[in-house]
Amino acid sequence: MRNAKIIPAGFGLPLVLVLLAAAVGGVGQWWAEGASTAWDFSRIGELAAAALEAGFVEEVLFRGVLLWGCLSWAQSFSQRKANRGAFQNPVCFAIATSSLVFGLFHLLPDGPWVTPEANLAIALAQAVLKVAQATLFGIIMARLVFETPFEKEPFPRRTLALAAPIVIHVAFDLLYLGPPMLSGEPLPTTYLTGIPLELANSAGMTLLLSLAVLLKTRRGCATPRGDSGNSC
Question: What residues does each domain of the chain span?
Answer without folding.
Answer: 55-217
